[in-house]
Design brief:
Layout: E1 4-7, H1 14-24, E2 28-33, H2 37-51, E3 56-59, H3 65-79, E4 84-87, H4 105-131, E5 136-141, H5 145-148, H6 154-174, E6 178-185, H7 198-206, H8 216-228, E7 237-240
Parallel strand pairs: 1-2, 1-4, 2-3, 4-5, 5-6, 6-7
Length: about 250
């Protein structure tokens, strides 16, 4: 039986790599996006080229609970159940941690609304579909910033710590039908890392025992492993950081 997965923020970068990894493993993938339809459709085209055309693009902002409820109804109508929800949608902006006036109230609210409330609301909207049949899995794409307190800004780090706490709470609350796990990357080579000077990136590599940054594909493989291999795992945080948190 074909499994169905929904990936929020599935248009580009890490989201696309997750979608591709799941499709390559035989999943039917729903690519959720908020605003960039071009990127989302490029992801859909990549999935079609890899694994046929039984995939779907759906626009819904994770900060809009009504839109999430409507998306869940559409998924129920078309597929009947959901095997995997990947809460990947997230936002941030670089602000030095000591620049407390540079991190505006508006940005703090946006970060928590998307990274924390959005993940909770998506899980709430799809809870019944994930509970159907043999049960399902929720994977939060978190960050080691939630544990280290080192990241793009203070609110971002706090939002990922909140996401990891939510992983533990929901894993307890939704068991035994639904597993909940955080996958927490460190630095990931991609558009965000490309904003920084190479000298800074080299410093991050030097601080990583495995001597490189993660790729989006590393994160995609970790998500697939949680979904398909680590089936007795729930309520935990799995780092994809090359050992960065060891230092």
């Amino acid at each position: 039986m074909v499994k169905t997965a929904l990936v929020t923020g599935g248009g580009g970068g890490i989201g696309r790599a997750i979608c591709v990894a799941l499709a390559a493993a035989g999943y039917r993938v729903i690519v959720n996006f908020r605003a960039d339809a071009t990127q989302a459709r490029a992801t859909l085209a990549a999935l079609a080229a890899l694994a046929g055309d039984d995939h779907l693009v759906y626009q819904a902002d994770v900060t809009d609970s009504g839109a999430l409820t409507e998306m869940a109804a559409r998924v129920a109508e078309r597929y009947g159940s959901l095997d995997l929800l990947v809460n990947n949608a997230g936002i941030t902006t670089p602000v030095p941690h000591d620049d407390m006036h540079g991190l505006s109230d508006a940005w703090i609210d946006r970060i928590f609304q998307t990274n924390v409330r959005g993940a909770f609301a998506a899980t709430r909207a799809f809870k019944e579909l994930l509970s159907a049949e043999e049960g399902g899995t929720v994977i939060h794409v978190s960050s080691i910033a939630g544990a280290t307190g080192v990241g793009s800004n203070v609110a971002y780090c706090a939002s990922k710590a909140a996401m990891d706490s939510m992983t533990r709470s929901l894993a307890r609350a939704l068991a035994p039908k639904i597993r909940v796990v955080s996958v927490a990357p460190g630095w990931v080579r991609g558009d965000y890392a490309a904003r920084f000077p190479q000298t800074y990136i080299d410093e991050q590599i030097d601080k990583t025992p495995l001597a490189r940054l993660a790729t989006a594909e590393d994160v995609g493989r970790a998500v697939l492993a949680v979904a398909e291999q680590l089936t007795f795992t729930t309520g935990t945080i799995i780092n994809v950081d090359g050992g960065r948190t060891l230092l």
